[in-house]
Amino acid sequence: MLELANxxxxxxxxxxxxxxxxxxxxxxLYGFLGPNGAGKTTxxxxxxxxxxxxxxxxxxxxxxxxxxxxESKMKIGYIPDxxxxxxxxxxxxxxxxxxxxxxxxxxxxxxxxxxxxxxLKIGDWIDKRTEEYSQGMKQRIVIASAFLHSPKLLIIxxxxxxxxxxxxxxxxxxxxxxxxxxxxxxxxxxxLNVVEEIxxxxxxxxxxxxxxxxxIETLLRMKQEHNRNLEKIFIELTEENESDYSHT
Length: 248
Description:
Blueprint lengths: L1 E10 L2 E11 L4 E5 L6 H8 L7 E6 L2 E2 L4 H5 L2 E4 L11 H10 L5 H14 L15 H13 L5 E5 L7 H16 L3 E5 L3 H7 L2 E6 L2 E7 H10 L4 H17 L2
Parallel strand pairs: 3-8, 3-9, 6-7, 7-8
Antiparallel strand pairs: 1-2, 1-4, 4-5, 9-10
């Protein structure tokens, strides 16, 4: 579904993403981990078209996103790390506005909004102005907007920021359900417990380099074999990479 081929992003003399290669198959929920400044958000911004790569390619379903940017964006849903809404619009008005950008018919859009409102347990908040929303409710509306056009690939940057336990539960269930329906999800996060709970595959980036790419089962076996939790494994992997990097 998604392939990153020798993808690189430099800012002057600084290399934020260093010719990384990843392949994410259809129906995977791929957790993308890394310390602050490791290159996660830069990678996401290149996939979504918000940043142009310095070199390399991005393929979605075999098509080069860089060659067909508008067509590719119609197949991608994006949830940023901070939910940006129009405060004077209600949640329903915002979703109609978002759906209109993808030329969804009013009949289909109404159906999708009703279904996502139910799945995300938005309730009567859907008809209140978003300026009245909590952080968690804002996030639910943004997540709903990303699914309106039935994307093939969903890109998420820190989906659990500011969510209360109930909101987090609702969001995790929706993501798992969507993966079961065949949607591919690429999720950047610092929440190792979320990765362990819902991800099928994991990639770890540090200093712009991919230092781990495999199944969640591989990480869990490392956890069991060495009697360590995922936090310790993550720290050890990134510290080893820091040591390697300092000698290059």
